[in-house]
Amino acid sequence: MDFKVGQKVVYPNHGLGVIEAICVREVCTGQTCEFYQLRLIATNSIVMVPTANAREVGLRPPITPDGCHRLLQVLAEDFEDPPMDWKGRYKDFTERMRTGDIFEIAYVLKTLVYLNTIKPLSFREKRLLEKARYLVVSEVAEALRRSVGQIDSLIDQALEQACAKHQNGRASRAFAARM
Fold first, then answer.
1. Per residue in 71-106, pLDDT tens?
2. pTM, whole model, 2 decimals?
3. Which of 1, 93, 105, 156 has the lowest tally of Cβ within 10 angstroms?
4. Where are the beta strands (DSSP E) in the chain?
């Protein structure tokens, strides 16, 4: 996967960035290595990613508009009950976030939004929810070329649908279990 200078990319767990340069640097072993120099949009910081490891790191192009529509559908779908053990859940969620896969991040977002409606989240989970929301909203806004505010409302609508479907499904499953 080759990226070009000026191209927008997604750096896992940090969000959108722009490739500012492709440069060769000497590394500590005395060898030279080619790097993508990206500027992260959220923090304006610079990250150097070895071009040979870009795929392993999870560097990828942003989601397409068609992918955004699919993502919004996935966000609106029902889901399985999350584990109630917060430690295991948190570990699973952080692993999903590290993949950089927007659909994995959306799963974390949807699940944490639902959990937040039924009980207060821990401080760590609140931060994870904020990060997941930022990553999804910013990438979809970029792909659809819309404002963050417009995308926020689309995401909120999808999440409300998912939570409602999940609540209805839970009630149905509980009723069926009593029969």
1. 999 999 998 888 888 888 999 999 999 999 999 999
2. 0.87
3. 1
4. 8-11, 15-26, 32-40, 46-50
